Structures are given as structure tokens and as C-alpha cells.
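Q: What does the predicted 3D structure of Probable molybdenum cofactor guanylyltransferase look like?
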Amino acid sequence: MKAAAIILSGGKSSRMGSNKSFLKIKNKMNIEIIRDKIKPVFDDIILVTNDSQAYKFLGVKMTGDEYPGMGPLAGLHAGLEASDHEVNLVVACDMPFISAELAEIMISFSRDVDAVIPVIAGKEHPLFAVYKKDLAVAAAKCIKEGRLRMKHLLEEVSVRYVTEKDFTDFTDIEIQRIFFNMNRPQDYEDAKKWAETE
């Protein structure tokens, strides 16, 4: 697919207490699980991290934040700047059950918009979503203005919001898992249990 996948791994993992990327599920690091799920589908994988040495083993292209300490919006900006593709999937490093097939569906909705944002059970998921490369400019503008939330960017660009109704090939339980992210130790324990049933 002529698109890049950008993995954001720059967070502090403060609620988890340890780096979420390196947490193991079925003897595989979370970051490896994500890479392996998207690798067959995307032409390029870009990891946004400010510790490239720690992730060298992944064998993917890496870039760092131009605006360190400014959160996911800065990570999105760095990834888009590093991408050679117009269309980009962005995924957070704490989503072990993401689906490349669902990502392809989101990309199919991106033709006439700047971003495709899932809204699942009424909640927006801007960190498993699709963004056009040109949004790097708008992201930098928001950061410079101190408007650091992802919603600040989305207010300025054309967005297609997609819901469960757009993913009819997936069951409700599958959708919940795909958009599950691990923030706290209990989330990690839940993820390990779910992985055993896959």
C-alpha cells in the first residue's frame, strides 16, 4: 500500500510506571507486535522516538521530535515530516490489538479529507487514525501557538469521522480490542489475558 505507518513512542508512560513499548505480551514486546501487524501492509514504517538507540533492534526508520516535550501532536508532526507518503496511518505504541485490515478501511476514506478519525463508543481515537502529510504545517502552527491537543489540530482541517458502522466486517468485541490502549498496570494485565484467547 502506498502509505506509511507512523508509530508514536515518545510518551513518558507515567501512569504505567514503565515504558509501554517494551511490555511483553506472549513473549513479544508491544512495539514488536505493532510493527509486525502493520509491516505486511505499509510501504514504510516510521518510529517517532527521542531514544533511537533503545529501538534500533526494530529495524525501522526513526525520527525524533522537533518540538520535544510537547506531547502526541509533536510526535505526529515529526512523523509526518519524516514521511515520504501523502497518506499516513498513525498509531500509538500502547495499542497491541490494532488491525492492519481496519487501517486499510480508514485509508480508503481519506481521499478528499486531511484526516480520518475513528469515533468508537462516542470517543475519538486520534492516535489510531489517518493523516495527510501536509498536516505537518498545521501541526507546527498549533504547537507554536501553545495549542497542544490533537483536537486543536482537527478543528483547523477537514476531517472524516468514522464509527463502528463503517467497520461492519468487525464484531463489537473486535472493535473494542482494536481501539484498546494500555495506560495503567491493570490494562496491561487485561491485555495479557485477552492475548491468550486470540
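A (community wiki): The C-alpha cells above were generated from the sequence. The first helix runs from residue 30 to 38. The chain has a mean pLDDT of 94.
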